[in-house]
Amino acid sequence: MTIKKILVVDIDPAARESLSQLLRPYKFQVVTAADGQEAYDKFKEERPDLIILEAILPKIHGFELTERITSETKGRTPVIIVTGAYRGPQYRNEALTTFGASDYFEKPFDREKFINSVLNLLKEDSEIWLDLPSPDEVASFLFKKAGLAGKAKKP
Q1: 154 exposed, middle or buried (CB, 10 Å; 0-12, 13-18, 19+)?
Q2: How many domains does the chain divide into?
Q3: 3-class SS at 34?
Q4: What is the mean pLDDT of residues 49-70?
Q5: Do 47 and 18 reside in the same domain of the chain?
Q6: Are residues 97 and 129 in the same domain?
Q7: pTM (2 decimals)?
Q8: Are 24 and 30 in contact (CB under 8 A)?
Q9: What is the DSSP string of 84-153?
Q10: What is the mean pLDDT of residues 49-60?
């Protein structure tokens, strides 16, 4: 099992440390940055598996950074926005749909929901899909169970 790398980005050193402490029991490698440009540079250099960032960042805004990373990785590197500034469903919706964030939390946030989100986003696709049957195998099984084998019409 490879150790997952997480980039934590916040202008506030206490917030960076708090997030790092929250992730520490899970044995992640945590890399930090204090602004959007430093975060982007570390993203290019370190290739983290997940990025957690505050929306309000100097040099490159968190929403712009999220959009850039999501675009460059074609969504393969999830970004979680954790913000104390942008409150309300309109910001959450915009972050998730327009900028490509994988999740969105307002400070203060539910620590258990946050950790569950991090753990879910870091699961390997291959682990998730490894033991699942194909859609055709599922359809075939269901037709057999329903006594309809051989009667299904293909489009």
Answers
A1: exposed
A2: 2
A3: coil
A4: 96
A5: yes
A6: no
A7: 0.78
A8: yes
A9: SS--SHHHHHHHHHTS--SEEEESS--HHHHHHHHHHHTS-HHHHHTTPPPHHHHHHHHHHHTT-TT-PP
A10: 96
* Mean pLDDT for the chain overall: 88
CATH for 58: 3.40.50.2300
64 and 113 fall within a common domain? yes
Q: Which domain holds residue 146?
A: 125-155
Residue with tokens 């983290």: 48
Query: How many Cα atoms occupy the beta-carbon half-sphere of 12 within 13 Å?
Result: 12
Same domain, 91 and 141: no
Task: For residues 15 and 72, state if they share a domain.
Answer: yes
Q: State the Cα torsion 74-79-83-86 to the nearest 10°.
A: 20
Q: Which residues pair with 7 in a beta bridge?
A: 31, 51
On whether both 113 and 58 belong to a single domain, the answer is yes
